[in-house]
Amino acid sequence: MSLLGRILMNHAEMAPPELILWLDDAATLQAAHTKINTLMDAWVPGTTKFREHKEAIARELERANALSVSTTKELDAAVAAALEDVHTNASYLMLRAKHEKDDSWLHNNGYQPKEKAKRGHDRSVSASILGLRAKNGPNIAEVSLSWDKDLAAGSYQLQICKGHPQGEGSFEDYGFLTKVRVVIGNLERASWYYFRVRSIGHNEFGPWSEAVGIIVT
Question: Which InterPro entries match (predicted)?
Answer without folding.
Answer: FN3_dom, FN3_sf, Ig-like_fold
